[in-house]
Design a protein that fits this description.
single chain, 290 residues, alpha+beta, 4-stranded mixed sheet, two-stranded antiparallel sheet, 10 helices, 31% helix
Length: 290
């Protein structure tokens, strides 16, 4: 639409009152499904089944996921808008959180939030005259391997992330080594692991070692979900990771800003993801600072 001249600026927004109403909870529970007679209903059950399968297929589990939950909480502690801003988490806190759907604990699950996000897309030429430094789209890709969990044969990978990322990297003309940070759709801790695994950052079974040692935290080699993500900041669908990437590249993130403030590299390129259903659909975006 921008290239054709049909419009000059596109506003993309999301808002929801998921926490203060029950509409979102009812949607996620999906009690109309035929699976309910087997005790299987809701998004958490679907992702838990995928995660349990992964535990049998390659070496993963809470020992890996604790690094994701605790690492993202450290970013949230630097974000005054995050739900868990003033609530640090230790590995012990993670292990002591109540079970939800096996093998998940409470802190493996994303938040349900009231709130909204928005961003504006325009041409690079027009963006040069705007208030903030522009962020450019280098590449993007999508892959939607199936529409229903029952028809999926990829619960442990490859999910749609693999082909989506290949398309995005090819369009951008870069490799993974050029990425300075990742903003990953994190409805569950396992989603972060399988996404980065399918993006090729590590091989199946290597997640525990890769995430360990503070890799994704403030001061880490590859920061992930620098706002706290959907696990610790707010669940605002795919706009949680995407808007955080844009603000980081603009330098608008205050105490959590990538660079000297957090003992990390000032970001030039950030990789983002979006995910739908139970790993059935995927989108990948690569953004860079102009």
């Amino acid at each position: 639409m921008l290239d054709s001249g049909l419009c000059k600026y596109v506003l993309i927004s999301f808002g929801h009152n998921g926490r203060s109403s029950d509409s979102f909870a009812r949607l996620l529970m999906d009690m109309s499904s035929d699976e309910r007679v087997f005790g299987h209903f809701g998004a958490a059950a679907g992702y838990a089944m995928a995660a349990r399968r992964a535990m049998h297929t390659f070496r993963t589990g809470p020992e890996t996921w604790k690094h994701i939950a605790v690492g993202q909480r450290k970013w949230a502690n630097l974000n005054p808008l995050a739900t868990f801003h003033a609530q640090p988490m230790t590995f012990e806190d993670y292990y002591n959180s109540r079970p939800t759907v096996d093998p998940f604990r409470l802190f493996d699950n994303c938040l349900i939030s009231d709130g909204g996000r928005a961003y504006i897309v325009t041409s690079a030429e027009r963006a040069r005259d705007l208030k903030h430094p522009p962020v450019l789209i280098m590449g993007m890709g999508q892959h939607n391997p199936s529409s229903d969990l029952q028809t999926a044969s990829f619960l442990t990978g490859n999910t749609g992330a693999k082909k989506a990322a290949e398309t995005a990297f090819r369009m951008a003309g870069i490799g993974r080594e050029a990425v300075d940070a990742c903003e990953i759709y994190d409805c569950f801790t396992y989603t972060v692991e399988i996404t980065l695994q399918d993006y090729g950052f590590f091989a199946p079974g290597e997640g525990e070692d890769w995430f360990g040692g503070g890799q994704i935290e403030p001061g880490g080699r590859l920061p992930v979900n620098t706002s706290g993500g959907q696990l610790s900041e707010a669940y605002l669908m795919g706009l949680t990771p995407l808007t955080e990437a844009v603000m980081q590249l603009m330098g608008r993130c205050g105490a959590r800003q990538l660079g000297p403030e957090t003992k990390t590299k000032r970001p030039e390129i950030i990789l983002c993801s979006d995910n739908g259903a139970v790993l059935q659909t995927h989108a990948c975006y690569i953004l860079r600072r102009a």
